[in-house]
Amino acid sequence: PNLKPERAMSWEFGVDQGLFGDVATLRATYFDQRFEDLIQYTFARPNPMDPNYFNVGAATSRGMEVGADIEIGLAQASVAWTWLDTEVIDSGFESGLGGSFIEGEALLRRPSNTVTVSASAPVAASGRIHVRSLVVGSRSDRDFSTVPEVRIKLPAYHLLSFGGEWALTTLAAKGPGVSVFVQVENLLDQYYEEVLGFRAPGRQIHTGISVRFGGGSR
């Protein structure tokens, strides 16, 4: 009953700059965050009737996002890189190399580097295809299969997605219409884990029909 919600305070500063008559846009953002009252779980309760969760942890997170967008006719492309630096500043009651919060170490499952590249282009008169590449860098996790638990590094992974959309009605671009779409996630069926010991989904294929009622809404 005395558990408080986790708190976060943040600020950021960003700049966007158009180039070549706004054909291209460069953007950069710096951000800084502080997390307090992080909730921790413990097996060793001070009192058997006490809860297993306590507000004790604190951490900081800072980083930078840099990207570029380009649009030539109806073709579009973008690239973005995110650098993230996290640090535990209060480990609470945890100690040892296997803790979820280790003072001076990074937060679990936060990659230092993430890169995204995407592009889309029209196909014939009524279609559009798009592709997206995502690279997620290595990050720390906790191995619960050992006693005591130890910290490990999850390897980086690369995901590729591809999709397309084709209009079934020949109407104005922003008017009402019906279209069919196909989206393939993890196109190369890469094996990766976002959480140690739990395989993330492999190749996924989604298809369906979308209806637009006008004004760009669906």
TrEMBL record:
Q: Name one GO cellular component term.
A: cell outer membrane
Q: What biological process terms from GO does the record include?
A: siderophore transmembrane transport
**UniProt subcellular location:** Cell outer membrane
> What does the UniProt keyword field contain?
Cell outer membrane, Membrane, Receptor, Signal, TonB box, Transmembrane, Transport
Q: Quote the InterPro entries the UniProt record gives.
A: Beta-barrel_TonB (IPR000531), Beta-barrel_TonB_sf (IPR036942), TonB-dep_rcpt-like (IPR039426)
Q: Which residues form the TonB-dependent receptor-like beta-barrel domain?
A: 1-187
Q: What start and end residues bound the annotated signal peptide? A: none
How does the protein associate with the membrane? Multi-pass membrane protein
The UniProt entry lists the main location of this chain as membrane
A Pfam match: TonB_dep_Rec_b-barrel
Q: Which PANTHER family did the record assign?
A: HEMOGLOBIN AND HEMOGLOBIN-HAPTOGLOBIN-BINDING PROTEIN 1-RELATED (PTHR30069:SF29), TONB-DEPENDENT OUTER MEMBRANE RECEPTOR (PTHR30069)
Protein name in the entry:
TonB-dependent receptor-like beta-barrel domain-containing protein
| Organism from which the protein derives | marine metagenome
Query: Which lineage is the organism of this entry classified under, starting from the top rank?
Result: unclassified sequences, metagenomes, ecological metagenomes
